[in-house]
Structures are given as structure tokens and as C-alpha cells.
UniProtKB/TrEMBL annotation:
A Pfam family of this chain: CDO_I
InterPro entries found in the cross-reference section: CDO_1, RmlC-like_jellyroll, RmlC_Cupin_sf
Record EC number: 1.13.11.20
Record-given protein name: Cysteine dioxygenase
């Protein structure tokens, strides 16, 4: 199918979107006059995206040993990132500032651990729940209650996700085990000390995948 025909097919409300180029094009067209409607439309666009590794794979190199992010779109209403999780890598406990998000797993599986936001005098973060997302699954996180970390627990397969923040991601907070937080501006590159800092999941680390048990929640 040529690009013109592909565009016409994807322009239908129920048509599959097979390329990031088209997905970004449609996101730019989403009106922001009604934020709730914009959230519904943007989530639907991510659901319709069916691109495979031949489409999004050009944005990273398989075999890298670090957690990486690729900025695909940054406009006032949206930030779109491609997140790459090598085996046994993930991010630190964080929120998304005033932005909500929806993410879709493009490859592999991702484990999310959720936490309650700390209150005054709280000594440690309290775990709220955990869930595993498989390829093709979506999840929406609200700005008001999102405090989590995301991990690739596989020892062999790289996991990849597509994350849409709305409105655009402008700040976030990283949390320590004591519940203390500090603010950082997003830096869209590789191996930078922000919310997506590299984080090993082996050795004596208390977030080791082998130690994650339901009774710990």
C-alpha cells in the first residue's frame, strides 16, 4: 500500500495506523479545546497504532545495554516517547508532574510497581499494587495518582513501549525509598540522570526481580 492510500485508510476512525509518521500527524490534529475529549482521542490513536519493529525499530539499536528514550514529538499538548528497556533494566520511582499518560507495549513485557504518594512524616514509600503488561496492551496513568516504576524483568528480551504524555511533559519527581522527592526537568537523550536513569535489577538491589513477591505489597 503506498503512502497516500495508507493515509486514507488510517484516516478512518477505525483504520489501523501502521507508521509513527502517521501517528504523529494525527496527534498534531487533535484539538485541545476539550481536554477530556483530547485524552479519549489520543488514547484511541495509540490503540490504533499497529506498527511493528520495521517501523519503530529504526529509533534504537538492538543490543544496547542501557535504558533509552527517543523523543518523537514535543508540542504544547503532547509529548511522545519511545522507551527501550534492555533485559533487567528499568526506571526509578517517579511521577509525571502535572501530566497524565497512556503507554502501549510494542515488544516484550513490562512490570509496573505502583506506590501511594508519601504523606508528611512517612518513613518509606508504601507499595500500592503491581501489574505486568504484555505486547499490545495499554495502560493510562493519571497525573493525580501516578507514582510508579517500570521494569523489564526478562533476562533475554528487550522490551519497548510507546508513551504519550498529555499535556506535554515538563517536569517530574524522582522518589527515594524514604519518600523524599526532587524535581527534574525531562532530558530526552540516553543515560542522563533524570527520572529514566539507568537502574540495575540484580545483585543486592532491593528491587531485584527475584525478590518481588505478592506479600511484599
Amino acid at each position: 500500500m503506498d503512502m497516500e492510500a495508507h493515509f486514507g485508510e488510517a484516516n478512518r476512525d477505525d483504520g489501523d495506523i501502521m507508521s509513527l509518521v502517521l501517528l504523529i500527524h494525527f496527534l498534531r490534529l487533535v484539538p485541545w479545546t476539550d481536554q477530556n475529549e483530547a485524552e479519549i482521542k489520543s488514547r484511541r490513536l495509540l490503540e490504533r497504532y499497529k506498527g511493528d519493529v520495521h517501523d519503530w525499530g529504526s529509533h534504537f539499536q538492538e543490543g544496547y545495554d542501557f535504558y533509552d528514550r527517543k523523543l518523537l514529538l514535543q508540542i504544547e499538548k503532547f509529548t511522545l516517547l519511545l522507551l527501550v528497556f534492555p533485559p533487567r533494566k528499568g526506571n526509578k520511582v517517579h511521577d509525571h508532574g502535572s501530566s497524565s499518560c497512556v503507554f502501549k507495549v510494542l515488544q516484550g513485557e513490562l512490570f509496573e510497581r505502583q506506590y501511594n504518594k508519601p504523606r508528611g512524616g512517612q518513613e518509606r514509600l508504601l507499595r500500592k499494587g503491581q501489574i505486568t503488561y504484555r505486547q499490545g496492551e495499554l495502560n493510562t496513568s493519571s497525573a493525580t495518582n501516578t507514582l510508579h516504576c517500570v521494569r523489564n524483568l526478562s533476562r533475554r528480551e528487550t522490551a519497548v513501549s510507546l508513551v504519550l504524555y498529555y499535556p506535554a511533559l515538563t517536569e517530574c519527581h524522582i522518589y527515594t525509598n524514604s519518600g523524599h522527592a526532587y524535581v527534574t526537568q525531562p532530558m530526552f537523550g540516553r543515560a542522563v540522570p533524570t527520572v529514566h536513569d539507568l537502574h540495575r535489577l540484580d545483585g543486592d538491589n532491593d528491587d531485584d526481580a527475584e525478590e518481588i513477591e505478592d506479600h511484599e505489597l
